[in-house]
Amino acid sequence: MAVKKFVVGCFDDEAVLFPAVKKVRAAGYKIHDVYTPFPVHGLDHALGLRETSLHTAGFIYGITGTTTALSFMSWVFTTDWPMNIGGKPHFPLPAFIPITFELTVLFSAVGMVMTFMYLCQMAPFVKKHIFHPRQTDDLFVMAIEVTEKTRPEEVKAFLDSVGAKEINEQTAEAGWWLGRFDREDKLFTKQIEPLNA
Amino acid sequence: MHLKYESTLREPLIDGVKDYHQVTEDIISPIEAKPGKLWYIGLFISIALLLFGVFSVTWEVYFGTGVWNLNKTIGWGWDITNFVWWVGIGHAGTLISAILLLFRQGWRTGVNRAAEAMTIFAVMCAGQFPIWHMGRVWMAFFVMPYPNTRGPLWVNFNSPLLWDVFAISTYFTVSLLFWYSGLLPDFATVRDRAKTKLRKYLYGVASFGWTGSTKHWQRHEALSLVLAGLSTPLVLSVHTIVSFDFATSVIPGWHTTIFPPYFVAGAIFSGFAMVQTLLIITRKVLKLEEYITIGHVEAMNKVIVLTGSIVGVAYLTELFMAWYSGVQYEFDTFYKFRAAGPLGWSYWIMMTCNVISPQVFWFRKMRRNIMVTFIMSIIVNIGMWFERFVIICTSLYRDYLPSSWSYYRPSWPEVGFYLGTFGLFFTCYFLFAKYFPVIAVAEIKSILKTSGENFKEKMVKYEDEDVEKFAHDQTHH
Questions:
Q1: Burial letters for B262-287: b for 16+ Cβ neighbours within 10 Å, e otherwise?
Q2: Would you call B166 and A120 a contact, using CB atoms and an 8 Å cutoff?
Q3: Name one Pfam family in it (chain B) (predicted).
């Protein structure tokens, strides 16, 4: 990703946060993200985020599991090695139900968790910038991206007026990198001039 | 903005004066403090038991399953009894984390983390028994349908024992994923307030770089809900399939259609008893009485008396059907070899512990008494172990041929193996209680403003308000 400049405002009450989000958006500032210690219901709508499609992905993984189990067991018992088990039929559909069900659940759960991790870009040894150490404790942290058109001082004053408690400016990597949380990593902050500019 | 109102008639789920930071402080600080003497003693005993279990299993593998007191008549003894017992215990964790989530039961947030941990550890213990019972355990991978050089000769997809392989391994995987995805935000909380470098590093790795981004929370909520939706039928299917191990056979006492619901109820019954045993100690030692309140204990005791009574009805139904069916073999199994006969004592222990004693929980005073609950939880666990023993052994020890009638008592490697799984379970639980947030911190915070005691006090003013005014204020937020 890229190193960007942010103005960060911390709120200590979700009742203040909600109107603040509305006002900041109405003022046209670009909210990079809001970090909360627990899921705040409705905040995704207030930020204008679209609904997640993770459920749909889960459904698709699920039916993949269903078809895998059913087709595999049918193939084994009717085509690959039709075995006589106590004279029972070669295509005993009711007996296939338990395994079909289990694989449906397994595929769906594993697939969804993998997708979740991919979408959120999370994995062991992945590091991301933490704007405030208390954003996983009791603060609701709003990071506003400083673009060419925003003046940081103005944003700070605005955040103050909507009720943010701690306000500061941070330059940080917006994406993830491989790193350890016990070390401060020095990431590239200098813009490298392209040779053919 | 969400409506932060809940009737004051409902008991608060979090006692004391709390704010978000205090919640973090209360739940995370035991991780940061040095463990007490009791913890070391407990862990030491658990590891000792675990090592004895390893020794017993090694003995069994070296000399063969013959060192167990199984014989031609009784092919399943303590091993399968313990397997079913441990799997059953696991079920309460999933019930709390998944089914109660779907039913929007707020009280689950106080106990779900520990209960899910219990599920995972219990399933780990359960899995040991069928695996080591294979005897030639180095062939254990034969249960997997993999393309092999013997044909390929596939596994028998008609067999309930194979269904079990799929059910238990799916159950373990899904429970682990569900549990760990819930742990991510809490690990991040520990990470961000860590004072030592090592803790910051390790919890940093464990938290997968969680930040608390709104989009991530949105996906996390969706994930939890769907995993709960998947786990609910899964948990019912697992013990149903375990009961198929018996019900699809033609042994009198096993061959009944009542088994799936009866097993599931029994599983939840024993699982809640184990949750009580663990949490009554955990809340005391970690001083979490304000999060796992008497109200939580009472709610779980209600589940115990309900499922215990379902189990009781199932026992009586079995007895009725054994007589009403007119099948001589069924009748003999139940009336001559279970309720009477050389192993009859185990039937009456089962009846006393599972059906008669839980009835004390019809009284509110008893449900809210910690000591009574703790003793009852142990009694129920003993009773449910005997239920499995009764089902397995008393159906087997008197078969169709009186010349092969036999008696069964376990040999030391069987007892040692069972004790070893206790060691495994409690070693894991002690490590969990020390290094993991035993209560879901983020989830507690999300119900704090509706169910915290100090916030509930503020609800009184809404309740005095006119309904019209209340509705008006809420819609214009």
A1: bbbbbbbbbbbbbbbbbbbebbeebe
A2: no
A3: NrfD
Cα B330 from Cα B324, distance rounded (Å): 10
CA separation for the pair A49, A38 (Å, rounded)? 17
State yes or no: pLDDT of B4 exceeds 80: no
CB contact under 8 A, B157 and A39: no
For A143, left (φ over 0), alpha (ψ -120 to 50), or beta?
beta
Peptide bond into B152 cis (omega under 30): yes
Q: Among partner residues A55, A116, A181, which is closest to B191 by beta-carbon distance?
A: A181
Mean pLDDT, to the nearest integer, of B96-106?
A: 85
Whether B24 has its CB under 8 Å from any CB of chain A: the answer is: yes
Say whether residue B149 is in contact with chain A using an 8 A CB cutoff.
no
Which of B237, B355, B342, B371 minimizes the C-alpha distance to B304?
B355
Residues 148-167 in A contacting B (C-alpha not used; CB under 8 Å) = none
Exposed (0-12), middle (13-18) or buried (19+): which is B41, by Cβ within 10 Å?
Answer: exposed
* Out of B170, B214, B217, closest to residue A102 by CB: B170
- Do residues B294 and B234 touch, judged by C-beta distance below 8 A? no
A114 in reach of chain B (CB within 8 A):
no
In whole angstroms, give the CA distance from residue B358 to residue B361. Answer: 6
- For B441, the closest chain A residue by CA position comes to A38
- Report the sign of the C-alpha dihedral through residues A66, A67, A68, A71, in that order: positive
Between helix B37-63 and helix B108-133 the angle, nearest 10°, is 20
Amino acid letter, B300? M
CB B74 within 8 A of CB B408: yes
* CB contacts, 8 Å: B20 with chain A: 37, 137-138
Task: Round the average pLDDT of chain B to a whole number and report it.
Answer: 91
Residue B458 banded pLDDT, cuts 50, 70, 90: confident
B193 touches chain A (CB under 8 A): yes
Nearest CA in chain A to B154: A76
**0.90 surpassed by complex ipTM:** yes
Neighbouring C-beta atoms of residue B256, cutoff 10 Å: 19
Q: Are A5 and A145 in contact (CB under 8 A)?
A: yes
**B201 and A181: CB-CB below 8 Å?**
yes
- As a three-state string, the secondary structure of B379-401 is HHHHHHHHHHHHHHHHHHCCCCC
Residue A100, C-beta contacts closer than 8 angstroms, at least 6 positions apart: A66, A69, A70, A73
The two three-digit tokens of residue B287, written as one number: 């001083």
Residue B213 is classified by DSSP as B
Q: What residues does CATH 3.30.70 cover in chain A?
A: 3-49+135-178
Q: Do residues A140 and A14 touch, judged by C-beta distance below 8 A?
A: yes
Residue located via tokens 């509305």: A22
**Rounded Cα–Cα distance for residues B34 and B185 (Å):** 23
Q: Does A174 touch chain B (CB under 8 A)?
A: no
pLDDT for B254-266, tens place per residue? 999 999 999 999 9
Rounded Cα gap, residues B278 and B27, in angstroms: 17
Q: What pLDDT sits at residue B1?
A: 43
Judge: B211–A135 Cβ closer than 8 Å, yes or no.
yes
**DSSP, res B143:** G
Check CB contact of A175 with chain B, cutoff 8 Å: no
Q: Which residues contact B357 (CB under 8 A, 6 or more apart)?
A: B376, B379, B380, B383
| B106 in contact with chain A, both atoms CB, cutoff 8 A | no
Tell me, yes or no, if B223 comes closer than 8 A to chain A by beta carbon. Answer: yes
Task: Confirm or reject CATH 3.30.70 for domain A3-49+135-178, answering yes or no.
Answer: yes
